[in-house]
Amino acid sequence: MIGRSIALGRRAGVLSVVGNAIGMIPAVLAVALGVGALVSSSIVAFTVIKIIGAAYLVWLGVQAIRNRNAHISAEAPQPASALKLLTQGFIVGSTNPKTIAFFVAVLPQFVSPTAGPAWSQLLELGVCFLLLALIFDATWALTAGAARDWFARSPKRISGMSATGGAMMIGLGGVLALSGAKS
């Protein structure tokens, strides 16, 4: 989210955060219904989801670097539509296998056998997590967007920040691809 805000501004960062939170809803549902444990324990499923998510982050980063000088062109670039930004955030959120692994590993620890059905408790815990993630990620996106606004006063600085944001997304994609290997 920081990379998106740095590369594209506050609006893009916040919309990406919202899309990412929406993208985590399937993971919450999967964990609540027991499917998350299957995906988390399947080497093939985990790896496929991880590679898709990593590749998409790298693609977003490359696009940010390729378009880092768009603000200099004679024509003002068209800002990405809200739907496009939400969709991109959704794809990132829904293809992050670490989200499912985290939910499978952490959420069941807070389930009480006397507090009702486990699926209901897992769903509530997942929704609480999503809301907290939405608040904190949006705060980071807004902060990074504010920094971008300062950098935007100089075309050189904004090009550098857009490239930096893109490099951060590529780096995150690389870390995602290389970490969390199942064995």
TrEMBL record:
Cited PANTHER family: ARGININE EXPORTER PROTEIN ARGO, ARGININE EXPORTER PROTEIN ARGO-RELATED
What is the name listed in the Swiss-Prot or TrEMBL entry for this protein? Threonine/homoserine/homoserine lactone efflux protein
Q: Which organism is it from?
A: Pseudoclavibacter helvolus
GO cellular component annotations, sorted alphabetically? Answer: plasma membrane
Keywords, A to Z?
Cell membrane, Membrane, Transmembrane, Transmembrane helix
Topologically, how does it sit relative to the membrane? Multi-pass membrane protein
Q: Any stretches that span the bilayer, and where are they?
A: 12-37, 43-62, 122-142, 162-181
The principal localisation class reads membrane
Q: Where in the cell is it found?
A: Cell membrane
GO MF terms listed in the record are: amino acid transmembrane transporter activity
